[in-house]
Amino acid sequence: MDSGYTKGIALIFEGDTEKIFYLSLLRYYCTKHPGFSISKKADATTGEVFYVLENDGSRVLIKTNVVGTVSQLTNSSAWFSSKCHGSNKSLEWTVILCYDTDEYMDSFSKFHEGDWKELRKSLQKNKAKHIIDMAANADIEDTMLLDSNSIFAFLDMPVCKIPSGSKGKRKMKKLFRMKGPGVAYHEGERAQSLIDALDFNVIINQSPLPFADFEASFFSNQ
Fold first, then answer.
1. Please, which contacts does 184-193 make with residues 24 or more away whose CB atoms are closer than 8 Å?
2. Beta strand 49-54 with 37-42: parallel, antiparallel or unpaired?
3. CB of 179 within 8 A of CB of 157?
4. Which terminus of the chain is less hemmed in, N or C, by CB atoms within 10 Å?
5. What is the C-alpha to C-alpha distance for residues 100 and 195, in angstroms, rounded to an integer?
6. Are 68 and 15 in contact (CB under 8 A)?
7. How many CA atoms lie within 13 A of 41 on its CB side?
């Protein structure tokens, strides 16, 4: 692969909605940093999709992995070893883990707190220089609901109380149903238009997630 990259960043997502959210967040950050742009690429040989963040002085290689279920996150170290550091050994790599801390603590999950520790050890062994946790004690939809006014505007609904529910996904589904028959919340790529309607500045200012670390990983020269 092109050796002109200045650093590599591996994004590991619990699900497709997280991927759509964080890639949209990156595009938002590009509007804050003049001269930066992000583009989607595909390897001509393997067809692997990746992203490149660049300006006049840097080219950041971005690889993404959606694990589907949190119990599969432990396999991400092998993906990082083969698809990230393994094919770009000259780069310094940062790994960003985007997951829901509620789910892995559920009694039915096979993924326990000790496995997160083992995953970090394995990633570091495979040359991950930095590891950042975007670990929400909630669904990604809870993070999105921090900007509820934009969601009400997207639905063309008057502002009202957010429906009750223990998880953000459940709240979001109820909110969409309040719009009327046949209106449903969709996850993954079908959530793109909703995510595009969000005010990320509102979310960043209200969320406990370490968005400053996330931003610095991509846009700092360090």
1. 187/15, 187/16, 187/17, 188/15, 188/16, 188/17, 188/20, 189/16, 189/20, 191/17, 191/20, 191/21, 192/20, 192/24, 193/154
2. antiparallel
3. yes
4. C
5. 18
6. yes
7. 19
What is the per-residue pLDDT for 112? Answer: 47
Residue 132, classed as helix, strand or coil, is: strand
Q: Which of 11-20, 53-62, 77-86 has the lowest mean pLDDT?
A: 77-86
Q: How far is CA 199 from the centre of its chain?
A: 16
Residue 163, token pair as written in the block: 């429906």
Q: How far apart are CA 58 and CA 220, in angstroms?
A: 10
Q: CA-CA distance, 135 to 139, in Å (whole number)?
A: 10
Residue 113 φ then ψ, to 5°: -55, -40
Rounded distance between C-alpha atoms, residue 19 and residue 32, angstroms? 20
> Model confidence over 119-162: pLDDT tens digits?
778 888 777 889 898 877 788 999 999 999 999 999 999 999 99
C-alpha count within 13 angstroms, C-beta hemisphere, residue 157 = 18
Q: Cα–Cα–Cα angle for 20, 24, 27, nearest 5°?
A: 150
